[in-house]
Amino acid sequence: MTAQNSRNYTKLAEVPDMSKLLRGVVKDTLPVLGTKRHATGDPQAAFEVANFTVDREHLAAYTRATGLRYSSELPITYPFVLSFPLFLQVMLAPDFPCRAAGTVHLTNEIEQTRPLRIDEQLTLRVHAENLRPHRKGLLVDFISEISVDGELVWRQTSAFLGMGAKFSAQTPNEVRTRGEDSGSLLERLDVADETATVNWKVDRDIIDDYAEASGDKNPLHVSKIGAKAFGFPAPIAHGMWTAAKMVAGLEGELPGALRYTVEFQKPVILPARIAYYTFRGEGAQPGPATNTPATDAAATEAPATDTPATWNAQVTKGSDPKKVHAVGKFEALS
User: Fold this and answer.
1) Kind of pairing, strands 310-317 and 320-332?
2) pTM of the model
3) What is the tens place of the pLDDT at every residue in 49-105?
4) Cis omega before residue 115 (within 30°)?
5) For the domain that residue 292 is a member of, what is the CATH number?
6) Of the candidates 78, 105, 222, 101, which has an alpha carbon nearest to the alpha carbon of residue 159?
7) What is the C-alpha separation between 325 and 317, in angstroms, rounded?
8) 3-state secondary structure of 181
9) Which domain range does residue 296 map to?
């Protein structure tokens, strides 16, 4: 895996403070103080933090909130929360086409050549690209990359929808003429006649713990008043909490070199009981969900020869499998 861009990254001494960034997000919504946003082209802001080391207590808090195991190897979804402050830094840049408070995370795809380790020094990079139309606004991809000693190990593409955003008169023709994108990457699985692999309860306490660990304290997730302001009767779970939980349900089965794609659909309104379905390969037989403690040696052990190259997964409402919260796909990389 190699880096796919030649951007000029602004080098930061450390990851930006989330509380300061969130204040910036709130300020940006104010009519007078906020930045007037125009979709004039692909955002140019790009940020890099070198020599980053993982805080073990932070990782432990994240694994407790998601049910992932704590070991010397980082869960494939954990770097999302490490890089999320850089997402907000890009969103708050003057050339970002829409307000951060009006964006919705639609899909996420992660590729890693191997698991990152807790004792490694990491270089984090984030930029946004591929601004394109969607029936409800504009889509933009956030590209996150994590390197170790100059080697790109982990790369993520996160598609965010700017609700109601439109191209401006100044948008270059080569951007304006990009085709409309539905934002969909995966097809729903037919699980109506299947038995869930595992069922989970999720409540405010769990999501509050995740909000604390991830730094994403959006009122939509942690406040009933904030959720109602966005049209929901109660707070909703973070999409990336659901994504992490889907990994937890297959932990111990997945290889280290992996592509993980997830598409978020109906929100998980709290409290909730959700059902998780897993399928081996392209078939329709639910597979086992394992989340048992393992030593570091077991975690780094090569997968057995009968480990399927592909897993499909889906999270639905516990009482109604037709109400889909997220669809996922795990693919072993050679």
Assistant:
1) antiparallel
2) 0.90
3) 999 999 999 999 999 999 999 999 999 999 999 999 999 999 999 999 998 988 999
4) no
5) 3.10.129.10
6) 105
7) 7
8) coil
9) 186-334
